[in-house]
Amino acid sequence: xxxVRNVLVVGGGAAGAAxxxxxxxxxxxVDLVDxxxxxxxxGSGITLQGNALRVLRELGVWKKVEAEGYAFDTLGLRAxxxxxxxxxxxxxxxxxxxxxxxxxxxxxxxxxxxxxxxxAEAGARIRFGTxxxxxTLDGEVTFSDGGKQRYDLVIGADGLHSWTRRQVGVDxxxxxxxxxxxxxxxxxxxxxxxxxxxYGGPAYIAGYCPTGPDSIYAxxxxxxxxxxxxxxxxxxxxxxxxxGAYHGPWDEIRESLTDPARVNYTVFESHLIDGPxxxxxxxxxxxxxxxxxxxxxxxxxxxxxxxxxxxxxLLREDARTEDLWRxxxxxxxxxxxxVVEASLQLARWQLAHERGDVPGLMARVAHLVAEPA
Length: 373
Prior knowledge:
It is a single chain. The chain is globular. The chain is 34% helix and 29% strand. The chain has helices at 14-25, 50-58, 62-68, 108-122, 163-167, 232-243, 249-255, 299-316, 322-351, 358-370, and strands spanning 6-10, 29-34, 45-49, 70-72, 74-78, 86-91, 103-107, 125-128, 132-135, 140-143, 148-150, 153-156, 175-187, 195-200, 203-212, 215-223, 263-272, 278-279, 282-284, 290-291. The chain has two domains: 6-71 and 104-174 and 270-370, FAD/NAD(P)-binding domain, CATH 3.50.50; 176-268, D-Amino Acid Oxidase, Chain A, domain 2 (2-Layer Sandwich), CATH 3.30.9. Strand 18 (278-279) and strand 19 form a beta hairpin.
C-alpha cells in the first residue's frame, strides 16, 4: 500500500502535473488545484534537456512531446559580428540516455496542455481558478471556494513565489540575480535548427531555440532593469533595438518581431531551501523549493526529477517515515544545489565580464544529471 491515500497538489506546472500523473497512476486519490483559469494560457518557449525528457517518457507523454517539439543534439556558438559568424558547433551530451535527444525545444503552453491532459487521463481531479486559502501542517486545507478537506500529504508545486512555502513557515525567498531577459515567440527561420548562443555585444547572451516545425523562441539577456512602465509597443521596440547588434539568423528573427503580445520581460531570481523540503504533511518541489537563472536550462528538468523521486518513494513505502524523507532529501538536495550554484556561477562570470571555464562547468553538470536522480 502506498504511503499516502489522498494527496493535494498545489500548482499545475511541470512539477505538480508530473507528481499528479505518477501518484494517480499508482492508485492514490489526487486533487490538483491551480489559481490560473487555464494553466496552458501563458508562456513562450521552453528548453528541455535529456534528463527532463527521461522523466517525460516515464510520465507516458514523450511521444506527444516529441511530435510537438523540436529535437536537436548540438549547440552553436556565434560571434556578435556583422555576419553572426559561427565560431563552434558543440555536440551535447545525451543526458537522458542514448535513445533520447540531447535537447528539445517546445512551446511552453503546449507542454502544459500535454501534462495536464495526461494527469486527467490518469485520474487526477483538476480544478483551475481555485487555490488554498488556509493550510495546516497536518494537511487540513481550506479552499478559496469555502470547501475544506484533510489530506495525507499536500505537495506545494506552486512556483517561485510559492504561497505554500510561506504558509508552512519557510522563510527562504528568491533573490534577484542581476539580469533580466527579453523573450519572444515567433516563426522559425529555416536556418535555425538548434540553439545558438551569442556572447558579447550589448546583451550578455543573445540566443534562440527552435520549438516546432515553424516556431522558435528567442531571448536577449541584459542587466536587470525596471521595464514595467513600457507599453507593449515600446517593449517590442526595445527588444528589436537590442537585437539589432546580432546578425546571421537574428536578422530574420528581428524582422518577425511585429506582435507586441509575443514579447515579455522578466528578471532572473534564485533560491534554494538548504535543508529538508517537508514540514509535517506538506512537501515543496520544483520552483517552490529551488530556482535558478536559465543559464543551464535545467529548471524544468530539476522540477520533473523532484516529482519523479517523490512519487517513487511515496508509492514504494507504506508509511511516511523519517527514513523516507531522509532519502528524498538525500537524492534531491545536493543535486539541486549543484545545478543552482552552477547556474549562478555562469551568471556571475557574465556579470563580471570574466572568462570562466564555461565548457568545463557545463560538462560537469551534464555528467551529473546524466545519472538518474
